[in-house]
Amino acid sequence: MSLRVFREELDAWSAAGRRATFWWRDDDAGAATPALARMLAIAQAHSVPVAIAAIPARLTAEAVPAILASSHCEVLQHGIAHENHAPADEKSCELGAHRPLGATAAELSQGRQRLESAFGDRFLPVLVPPWNRIAPEVVAMLPTLGFRGLSTFSARKRAHVAAGVVQCNTHVDPIAWRRGRGFVGADEACARIAAHLRARRDGQADATEPTGLLTHHADFDAAAWAFVERLFETTRTHPAVSWIRARAAFVPDASATSGRSA
Question: Were both Cys, which of 104, 220, 225, 250 would link to 149 (CB 3.0–4.6 Å)?
Fold first, then answer.
């Protein structure tokens, strides 16, 4: 596995006396499956904090204690039921403008209340839209629905997307969704990580937005998890890297959090 390009970019951060912040989001949690257990075990083994995006309508009673048993986990809200409401000629979207906004608002609130009840202070009022898509009209409602964060995919354009709502995205997804849904390969994954880090370092992207790793435990194969573990091993021994908790990521300047999180 080649990590040379990635290591060189981390060394550039180190030479500049800067700290590269990372965060980890795992999507589609609902049931207490072997795949979920494997992801939680990896987080525990490497002491890397993970933000679990749980689907309120699919959350089972068995999954709750499994997640709470790990001190490395925080929970975000992954939409409502992960159901597509877009017509066949549009990309999949649950939180678009395809339904009355009042119905979407009510179901988002119900989902938030369910996750708060299940996870207590481990739950963060951060919305993760299924398929990383959300209508501007829904974003505008987030403050009144009690949300304080929004997470999609790709470099954010601004830190605040609504009053009191901070956006912090993910930037690297190691699955080739349109090419058989397998692992993209170590070289491509490392190149994607290095590209976002370089954009932050060069001022082409928001330097305060931590680089986000996106995983989907239900869809990962052995090669993808092997890469993730190698990534954790490499970064946790590098002086320029900090893996931060989601709680620290959803603040205006996440780069201010420089200590290693466990």
Answer: 250
Q: Rounded to whole angstroms, how far apart are CA atoms 165 and 161? A: 6
Spatial separation of the C-alpha atoms in residues 49 and 68, rounded to whole Å: 13
> Tokens 């499994």, residue?
66
- Strands 160-162 and 165-167, how do they pair? antiparallel
* Cβ 260 vs Cβ 243: under 8 Å: yes
| DSSP secondary structure string for all residues of 96-122 | SSSS-HHHHHHHHHHHHHHHHHHHGGG
**What DSSP letter does each residue of 191-230 carry, written as one string?**
HHHHHHHHHHHHTSS-TTSPEEEEE-TTT--HHHHHHHHH
Domain ranges in the chain are: 4-255
pLDDT in tens, the chain (262 residues): 467 889 999 999 999 999 999 999 999 999 999 999 999 999 999 999 999 999 999 999 999 999 999 999 999 999 999 999 999 999 999 999 999 999 999 999 999 999 999 999 999 999 999 999 999 999 999 999 999 999 999 999 999 999 999 999 999 999 999 888 899 999 999 999 999 999 999 999 999 999 999 999 999 999 999 999 999 999 988 999 999 999 999 975 544 443 333 3
How far apart CA 190 and CA 2 sit, in angstroms, is 8
The structure tokens listed for 211 are 């680089």
Topology, domain 4-255: TIM Barrel (3.20.20)
Using only C-alpha atoms, what is the Rg of the chain? 18
Tokens representing 143 are: 């403050």
CB of 246 closer than 8 Å to CB of 25: yes
